[in-house]
Design goal:
Layout (H helix, E strand, L loop, with lengths): L2 H34 L5 H15 L14 H13 L10 H11 L1 H32 L1 H9 L4 H42 L11 H16 L1 H8 L3 H5 L4
């Protein structure tokens, strides 16, 4: 009686296995090249140790999908396998088991959040470094603006606005990529499971994250803006020869 369900999930299982295999091969090749550049060194030993631990861990768990005819059958099998037996485990009740599973992997959400914070900090640092390095090539332009009457705070604000615009542009591109991927994944999930994901559903993070990214990039532009603020007009515009 469960063969239709197994047959329906077979394609997804094969697809998941293929993606996992490609992911494993890609990671293995990258780590192999990384370790092969310095054979016998610390990185080589670390990669070999990690590979040995990975091979030692059991890579799969055997399970059987059961379709119960009555709720009493679930209670009876729970008593038979979970309460009295010690060889097999029966996942029942399903709701409590799923909730417990998500509770055990809740730490992964925190890891993803930390990765997102790290990406934001790296992006702000990149904006800081790019604008700061460009200040040396733009000193003469800034000095000309000062000579034409631009105030120091105007130069300071212009550099901050440039950094904020870079952050806003990055947020806009991120939104475009997000909605493109979301639309594709939503269509795939609807075709495979029948579950419909609402693309128009709002969430506070959709406006908090872009604003925070723009503010963070503007904060990263403070250092190059201060450098532009201190540009000496007379020394910069003085003839070299």
């Amino acid at each position: 009686p469960v063969w239709p369900n197994l047959k329906e999930a077979l394609v997804n299982t094969i697809r998941l296995g293929a993606v996992a295999s490609l992911f494993g091969i890609s990671i293995s090749l990258a780590l192999g090249v990384f370790a092969g550049l310095r054979p016998g060194k610390l990185r080589d030993s670390a990669v070999n140790t990690g590979a040995l631990i990975g091979f030692s861990i059991q890579p799969f768990i055997s399970a059987v999908l059961l379709q119960l005819r009555t709720p009493m059958a679930g209670l009876q099998m729970d008593m038979l396998y979970n309460k009295q037996g010690n060889r097999l485990t029966f996942a029942y009740p399903v709701g409590a088991i799923v909730a417990e599973l998500f509770g055990k992997i809740a730490w992964f959400d925190q890891v993803l959040a930390l990765v997102a914070y790290l990406v934001a900090l790296v992006a702000a640092g990149s904006v800081l470094a790019s604008i700061y390095n460009s200040m040396s090539a733009r000193q003469r332009d800034l000095a000309i603006l000062r000579a034409l009457g631009a105030k120091r705070r105007t130069i300071f604000g212009a550099v901050l606005a440039e950094a904020a615009c870079i952050g806003a542009l990055g947020a806009a591109v991120g939104f475009a990529v997000y909605f493109g991927l979301f639309a594709g994944v939503a269509n795939l999930i609807r075709a495979q499971t029948g579950v419909v994901l609402d693309l128009s559903a709002g969430h506070p993070v959709l406006w908090i994250c872009p604003l925070a990214m723009v503010a963070l990039c503007a904060l990263g532009g403070v250092v190059p803006a201060f450098k532009a603020y201190r540009t000496p007009v007379a020394e910069t515009l003085a003839p070299v020869s």
